[in-house]
Amino acid sequence: MHYSFGSVIILFLANLIRIYYWLILARVILSWVIRDPENKLFAFLLDITEPVLAPIRKILPSMGLDFSPIIAFFLLRLLSRLLLSFI
Q1: Residue 34, helix vs strand vs coil
Q2: Beta carbons within 8 Å of 52's beta carbon, 6+ residues apart
Q3: Which long-range contacts (CB under 8 A, 24 or more apart) does 64-73 make?
Q4: Is the N end or the C end of the chain the one with fewer CB atoms within 10 Å?
């Protein structure tokens, strides 16, 4: 299978989105176990995922639970499918 340069870029971006999806999932799971912001892994996950989750959190009404990861999963999946539709 031969990919054009544009297809390679799209596949690269889709894979980055997939990795980011897993980083958010790891943050969610670790937030149940590790609540220490001094933990390097947890701090890294907070730093890397907060730029996407914070704007979503601002839009969502306060409901006691943080639903921003669920919305982020949906949006990332949608973006990935949209990108892959161009191949």
Answers
A1: coil
A2: 20, 24, 72
A3: 69/24, 69/25, 69/27, 69/28, 72/24, 73/21, 73/24, 73/25
A4: N
Cα–Cα distance for residue pair 26/45, rounded to 1 Å:
8
Going by the DSSP 8-state scheme, the letter that residue 62 receives in this structure is P
Residue 51, pLDDT > 70, answer yes
Q: Which residue has the tokens 């892959």?
A: 84
In the DSSP assignment, the letter for residue 86 is T
What is the pLDDT averaged over residues 57-70? 92
Both tokens of 52, joined, read 């996407």
- Which pLDDT does position 63 carry in this prediction? 85
C-alpha 29, offset from chain centre: 13
Cα distance between residue 48 and residue 34, in whole Å: 16
Q: What is the DSSP string of 4-26?
A: -HHHHHHHHHHHHHHHHHHHHHH
